[in-house]
Amino acid sequence: MPIKVLRRLRFSTTRSAIRAPITALGKVGQSSEGEEKMGGHNPQRGSRRATQVSQLVLALAAGASALSVTTAHAQPTAPKASAEKPAPAQGEATAVDEVIVTGVMAGTAAKKANVSYSVLSEDDMSKFTPISADDMLRDMPGVVVESNDGVARNEVFTRGMTIGTGANTSGYFWTTILEDGLPVVPFKFGGFQDGYFYRADISTSRVESVRGGSSATGVTTSVGSTFNYLTGKIRPRAAIQTRIGFEGEDLHLSWKQVDGAYGWLNDAGDFGVGLSGFYRRSNGQVNPGWDLNHGGQFKVNLYKAYQNDSGSGSFNVVLKHLDDTNAELTTFQQPSYGYQNPEEIPGFGRDVNLFMNGGGQTVPNYFKSGSHELDPSDGYRYKQDAVWLNWNHQTNGAWSYKGALRIQKSTYRGQSYKPQGLNSLGSAAATRERFGLNINNLDRTPGYYELYNSTGALVARVANNVAGSQLGTNYRTGAACPRVTATTWQTNSLCVVGNSLPNRDIDMRGGLVTATIPSANGTFNSGVVPVAGASQDLVLLTRAEDNYRESTDFMGNFTANYYGDSYSLNFGLYAAKADEVNDNWANGLGVSAWADGQVENLNVRYVTNTGTTYQLTDSGGWGSYGSGLFTTVSQRAKILEASPYFGANWSPGKHWDFNGSIKYQYFHAKTYSETWDTRNSGAASLTNGGLDGNPLTVYDNVYMVKTPSKVIEADKDVANLNFSVSAGYNFNARHKIYYRYTDAKQPAMGIVQRYSTAATLVRPLGPTASVTGHEVAYTFGDPKFNGQITYFYQNFAVNDYPVATDKDNVSTYLLPENFNTYFTRGVEAWAKWKITRDLEWFPSVTYLNGKTTAAYNWLNTGANGQGVDDDVLRIDSGILSRSPKWTLSNTVSYRWKDFRFNVRHRWMSERKLNSNALDHRYLPEQDNLDISVQYEGMKDTRITLDVRNVLDTQYISAYDPMISTNLPANVQIYDVVDQLPQSGFLLKRNAPRSVWLTIRKDF
Question: Using alpha carbons only, how large is the chain's radius of gyration in Å?
Answer without folding.
Answer: 30
